[in-house]
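Person: Please comment on this record:
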Amino acid sequence: MKFRWPFSKKRNERWVGINLSSLTPSAVIYSNEGIVDAVTYDQEQGIDALALWLKQHVTHGISAVLVLDDDDYDLLLVEAPNVPDEELNAAIEFRIGDLLAQPIEETAIQTLRLPREAYRGRMSMAHVIACPDETIKKRVRWANKLHLAVEIITVPELSLLNVLAASSIDQGIALLELGPNHGCIRLYQNGALFLTRQVEMGIDVLDINSAIEETSFENASFEDGDHSDINLEEMNLSDFTSENSDSGDDFESSELQLEVAEDDWTSYKESYVGFSPKAQVNGQQLENLVLEVQRSLDYYESQLGMGQITQLWLMGGDTDLKDLVDAMQPLLTAHIEQPDIADKLAKKVGMEVPNDIIDINKSVTALGGALAYVTR
């Protein structure tokens, strides 16, 4: 699959991107003139509140892009067989059957090779998204009841890639997205997702804006740290799977877009320069979070051979993460910011955001889904 980079605008109609996340269900109505409307609900309000909003704000038959919930699909990293791209899906099926909770015959899969430069050309790897047919049917039935015309089904990893493309970001960048209890770090470059890792902590345990005493990190700096190399060839393939499932009318598996999740790293000890956080953030959890980020950046540079990540976007919906940005910045070489997505898109592509939409950051995944329709 080729990513379109940058976007080209093709239609004059309106369409809607819908994020089916159970934590932050959201929708963005979009047209060639820019964002028309947007909404995000919390976990307690749920998908039902989003469905009611869609009934009130979209016309029957509007084109829709559905962004699957994290629990809807499995993310796998497998060695890619030496076959033409058009035969890759079929070849991969024989390798992943034992890794799935349901029979491969009842699973829609989409396979994408990692770029050739990944892993310094030592091996050919592929990312696979595997989604139960029944989940796709359930999601499409839900959309049909709302009189939506499903055009594309995608995943959060690629939705965020669409936002980066619209923002003209093509150099290496890390996105660290934090929810209440956990997070995810994703590394992108030149229109492709190279790495995804789950972070087992979130905004709640970081105690952002809570008063704490100064905390110091001991010993040497990251640059001087003793980084343990990770030998991918020795990893068990099952280490790269994530357990998912849930919920679609028939929909072509070729419409699914994919990228990868990676997990279960060889742990190693880092050392630090002495540091007192500027911010009111839980010091121990901050230390753990920085370790997780640094591991990912090190892996990207040393194992994937992709060079240094120079910028990191810290994303937490409408939560103000300025304290966390200030606390992390002295410990990482990458420039860290909590981006104002609306401002970045306005400056790069002149995208209009209505004044009554206060914070598009909460709806960024749905926005990425809407942008997928622009490029299809």
Residues 230 and 299 are 8 Å apart (CA to CA).
